UniProtKB/TrEMBL annotation:
It is an enzyme of class 2 (transferase). It comes from Microbispora triticiradicis. It is found in: Cell membrane. This is histidine kinase. PANTHER family: SENSOR HISTIDINE KINASE TRCS, SENSOR HISTIDINE KINASE YKOH. Residues 266-470 form the Histidine kinase domain. CDD domains: HAMP, HisKA.
Length: 485
């Protein structure tokens, strides 16, 4: 694998656009605003109807109760003042202007002038229930009155036992006549329901306006222009969080598309050069008979080998991005020891590992990272390569350190980009594809870890960090041990 190679650059995130001013389209019948408003309107009408009915009953009962209390008082006081030798004239009040005394035949015995000569009611209370509250209507006039029976002892003393009745009443208040009270309260309830509905319509429109603006902006975003962002309202409510999440998703999408475009351009460029050379060699063999065909084919084989290498690594790179790896507990310390033991070459590799470095991942993919790092380190090292594997907090730390020239600080991220090859890498490995370190970092990220070049006194220090697996069976732990190679 080529040393210090990498791939595509990330584009800057597109700037957010402000909310466009202007009239919003009217909501359709299936919109949330219409459904919410209709629901609230129905509930408002139902609630207003219940409140209106209850209020009508309460008002009517309260008014009639006050009137009947007063009519009973007037009737009781007049009956209490009657004597055998003297029946005083009726004593009406401003609230009870109608007072009459009738006999058992319904004839008016005594009444105040306003009450008239006709009996106000035909109700005859019994001796067991001396008071009855009624409303008598005749034509357009209704009278609210109390019919009171004179006590039997008092009637026997005054009229030799003939029953007599006292009627005390007043004209029905205008609000209680007919259905005026119901109409008035019903109209008030309708106005209240309409006010609730209108308030809900306005409030729903105000709440949903940012969502409408978000929808309009999302419809303007295309694959050719991913720089637009949805308007983000202030606050921390659900709509604000939705807008922030949408913008974060658009940021990631724009970055991914930018990387994909750049990656496709770089791949095209990398494949174009060897393909052009291969075509030129083959065309030369066809056009010029003096060119040896076997030599032309032999010269084309290295080019096809390089193309095959690039395509294989591209397939591995794409498979890693699109297909989740099969995870299993892996003893990272044992894996590093095995890879170091398998290495040969002129530059020796010294390893120091610790036991218990269990991580969750693909053994094959993790081994490819260690192998690639060891190959790069041996290629650039002067005399030795040091490898360590140890736990640091909740992470497993693998360090590969060579004593070569190292990597300049400004190039420490570029080497992980696909197809990026520094001058030293091109010189030491002319046939490399430039995908090795990019593939290593992609594997590390897929395992929720990281791969970076960190500071070192001399040479390049590659550091792989992976999360430790805490839930490991005792048998697996016993199989791992601390070893130096």
């Amino acid at each position: 694998m080529a040393a210090y190679h990498g791939g595509g650059e990330q584009a800057e995130q597109g700037s957010s656009m402000g909310i466009r001013r202007g009239a919003l389209p009217l909501p359709r019948s299936g919109s949330i605003r219409v459904r919410v408003t209709l629901t609230v309107a129905g509930l408002s009408v139902l609630l207003a109807g219940v409140i209106a009915a209850g209020l009508c009953l309460l008002i009517r009962h309260r008014v009639e109760t006050e009137i009947f209390n007063e009519t009973r008082r007037v009737a009781s006081e007049w009956i209490g003042s009657m004597r055998r030798d003297h029946i005083p004239p009726p004593a009406p009040t401003a609230r009870v202007p109608l007072v009459q005394l009738t006999d058992s035949q319904g004839r008016v015995v005594l009444a105040n002038p306003v009450a008239g000569e006709q009996p106000m009611s035909t109700v005859r209370p019994t001796s067991d229930d001396r008071f009855q509250d009624v409303t008598e209507c005749s034509g357009d006039r209704c009278v609210v009155l109390t019919a009171a029976r004179v006590p039997s002892l008092q009637a026997a003393e005054i009229w030799q036992g003939e029953p007599h009745y006292v009627y005390a009443g007043t004209d029905q208040p205008p609000a209680l006549r007919g259905h005026r009270l119901e109409l008035l309260v019903g109209a008030s309830g309708a106005v209240l329901a309409a006010l609730w509905t209108w308030t809900t319509w306005r409030a729903a429109g105000r709440i949903l306006r940012p969502i409408t603006a978000i929808g309009q902006r999302m419809s303007e975003i295309t694959a050719h222009d991913l720089s637009l962002r949805v308007p983000q309202p202030p606050g921390r409510d659900e709509i604000a969080r939705l807008a922030r999440t949408a913008n974060q998703t658009l940021d990631r999408l724009e970055s991914a598309v930018t990387q994909q475009r750049h990656f496709a351009a770089v791949v095209s460029h990398e494949l174009k050069s060897p393909l052009a050379g291969l075509r030129a060699g083959l065309e030369e063999a066809l056009l010029y008979p003096e060119v040896d065909a076997r030599e032309a084919i032999a010269g084309a084989l290295p080019v096809t080998d390089r193309l095959q290498q690039i395509i294989d690594e591209l397939l591995a790179f794409a498979r890693l991005r699109n297909t989740p790896c099969v995870s299993e507990p892996v003893d990272l310390g044992a894996l590093v020891r095995a890879e170091v033991a398998a290495r040969g070459g002129e530059v020796p590799v010294h390893a120091r590992t610790e036991s218990g470095l269990w991580v969750l991942g693909s053994r094959v993919q993790l081994a490819s990272i260690v192998t690639n790092l060891l190959v790069n380190a041996q290629r650039h090292a002067t005399s030795k390569v040091d490898v360590t594997a140890e736990p640091v907090g909740a992470q497993a730390l693998v360090t590969v350190l060579d004593d070569g020239a190292g990597v300049a600080e400004e190039d420490r991220e570029r080497v992980f980009e696909p197809f990026v090859r520094l001058d030293a890498g091109r010189h030491l490995d002319p046939g490399g594809s430039g995908l090795g370190l990019a593939l290593c970092r992609a594997i590390a990220v897929a395992h929720e870890g990281s791969l970076r070049i960190e500071e070192s006194p001399r040479g390049a220090r590659f550091v792989l960090r992976l999360p430790l697996l805490t839930d490991v069976s005792p048998g697996q732990e016993a199989a791992s041990g601390s070893t130096a190679v």
